[in-house]
Amino acid sequence: MAQQETDPETERQTDRSLTMSRAMVEAIAHEMREDEEVFYMGEDVADYGGIFDSTEGLLEEFGCDRIMDVPISETAYLGAAVGAAQAGMRPIAELMFVDFFGVGMDQIYNQMAKNTYMSGGSVSVPMVLTAAVGGTYNDAAQHSQTLYGTFAHLPGMKVVVPSTAYDAKGLMHNAIRDNDPVVYMFHKRLMGIGWLPAPDGPKTPVPEDDYTIPFGSADVKREGADVTVVTLGLHVHRALEAADDLADDGIDAEVVDLRTLVPLDTETVRESVAKTGRLVVVDEDYRSFGVTGEIVARVAEDGLADLEAVERVAVPDVPLPYARPMENEVVPDAEDITSAVRAAHGDE
Amino acid sequence: MYEAMVTARHYEERLQEEYLEGKQPAFDISAGPIPGELHLAAGHEASGAGVCQHLRDDDTVTAPHRPHHIAVAKGVDLKRMTAEIFGRETGLSKGKGGHMHLFDPDVNFACSGIIAEGCPPAVGAGLAAKKRNTDSVAVAFLGEGAIDQGAFLESLNMAAVQDLPVVFVVEDNDWAISMPKERVTDVENGAQRAGGFDLPGTRVDADDAVAVYEAAREAIGRARDRNGPSLLEVQVHRRMGHFMGDPQAYRSDEDEEAAQQRDSIDRLEADLRAHGVDNETVASLRSSAQERVEEAIEWAKEQPEPEPADAHEDVFTNPPSGVTDSEPNAAKTETGGDD
Ligand SMILES: Cc1ncc(C[n+]2csc(CCOP(=O)(O)OP(=O)(O)O)c2C)c(N)n1
Question: Where does chain B have alpha helices with state H?
Answer without folding.
Answer: 2-21, 45-52, 68-74, 78-85, 119-132, 150-162, 209-224, 253-261, 264-274, 279-302
